[in-house]
């Protein structure tokens, strides 16, 4: 897929001397869902705010579909919709008025049919005449998304889009994001919900202390960094791992009821067969076995810990 956003040697240092971003290089592909993961204070919001032209970079360059965010700001910004983390809306305006106004800010002609389509897609149509102040937190977040979509952007940034919303609403938003992507919209989201990235993203970026630590296809990331565990539930408790199994570096549970072998997901299958044979030869009997694979959360925690 062609690149739609190009970030080159981007850094941001605030007046206090705090360096929020350090030499960021990143490419976002047209039509993908890109998830940016990182702990609090990692630089996620600063990065997307800089790309969107809200924060001025100290060094480096960002282009959006070839338009420089500084020298060609208007063209670059017109392609972008941003859903901020904070619930900032005009409390006394109606849903219809505030979403329509957002479209006008970008110089777009009135298009009631488009506004209606957006509000219906976000289950806001029956709230169109309600004042923002009367809505629940989840509904207000939907309004923010509607505002971001009002001018028909090609790129949508979602900064913690489902923070503080219930599980049902989160699922609705996931479905909406998938639908937008199917219509050609590029989606970049920051999230604290690891399952959100695992469920939706095509690629994952990990940022920590203002530096991009990794960018990878989700499936490839999990293949390369994911681990599997083979757990044997024993018929009889053990006091220690038998010496004959020492080369496998197996772990015995505290109660002596389980033996666990951790291995890379790309290890040769033959090694598991050999392990089970050696378990049998060592006289260890088990009544059940199960395998589990590392989640994206396990991988993320491990990456951040390595770079702390």
CATH superfamily of the largest domain: P-loop containing nucleotide triphosphate hydrolases
Output the helix-strand order: EEEHEEHEHHHEHEHEEHEEEHEH
CATH topology of the largest domain: Rossmann fold
Lateral arrangement of strands in the main beta sheet = 6-7-8-3-9-10
CATH class of the largest domain: Alpha Beta
CATH architecture classification of the largest domain: 3-Layer(aba) Sandwich
**What is the percentage of strand-forming residues?**
25-35%
Low-confidence stretches: none
Please, what is the average pLDDT? 87
Structural class: alpha/beta
What's the total count of β strands?
14
* Structural domains: how many: 2
Helical content band: 25-40%
Number of helices: 10
Q: In angstroms, what is the radius of gyration?
A: 24 Å
Overall morphology: elongated
Ends distance? 33 Å
Instruction: Give the biggest beta sheet.
Output: 6 strands, mixed
């Amino acid at each position: 897929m062609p690149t739609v956003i190009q970030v080159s040697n981007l850094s941001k240092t605030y007046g206090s001397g705090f360096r929020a971003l350090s030499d960021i290089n990143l490419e976002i592909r047209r039509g993908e869902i890109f998830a940016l993961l990182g702990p609090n204070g990692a630089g996620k919001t600063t990065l997307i705010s800089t790309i969107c032209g809200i924060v001025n970079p100290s060094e480096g360059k960002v282009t959006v579909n070839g338009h420089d965010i500084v020298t060609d700001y208007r063209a670059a910004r017109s392609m972008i919709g941003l859903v901020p983390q904070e619930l900032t809306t005009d409390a006394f305006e109606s849903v219809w008025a505030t979403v329509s106004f957002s479209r006008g800010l970008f110089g777009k002609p009135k298009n009631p049919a488009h506004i209606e389509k957006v509000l219906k897609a976000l289950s806001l149509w029956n709230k169109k005449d309600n004042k923002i102040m009367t809505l629940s937190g989840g509904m207000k977040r939907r309004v923010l998304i509607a505002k971001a979509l009002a001018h028909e952007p090609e790129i949508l940034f979602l900064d913690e889009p489902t923070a503080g919303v219930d599980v049902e609403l989160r699922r609705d938003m996931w479905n909406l994001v998938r639908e937008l992507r199917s219509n050609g919209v590029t989606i970049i989201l920051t999230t604290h919900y690891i399952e959100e990235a695992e469920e939706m993203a095509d690629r994952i970026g990990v940022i920590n202390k203002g530096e991009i630590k990794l960018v990878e296809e989700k499936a490839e990331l999990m293949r390369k960094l994911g681990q599997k565990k083979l757990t044997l539930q024993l018929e009889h408790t053990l006091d220690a791992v038998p010496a004959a199994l020492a080369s496998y570096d197996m772990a015995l549970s505290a109660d002596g009821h389980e033996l666990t072998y951790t291995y890379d997901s790309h290890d040769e299958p033959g090694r598991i067969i050999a392990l089970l044979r050696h378990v049998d030869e060592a006289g260890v009997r088990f009544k059940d076995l199960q395998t589990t694979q590392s989640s994206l959360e396990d991988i993320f925690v491990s990456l951040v810990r390595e770079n702390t």
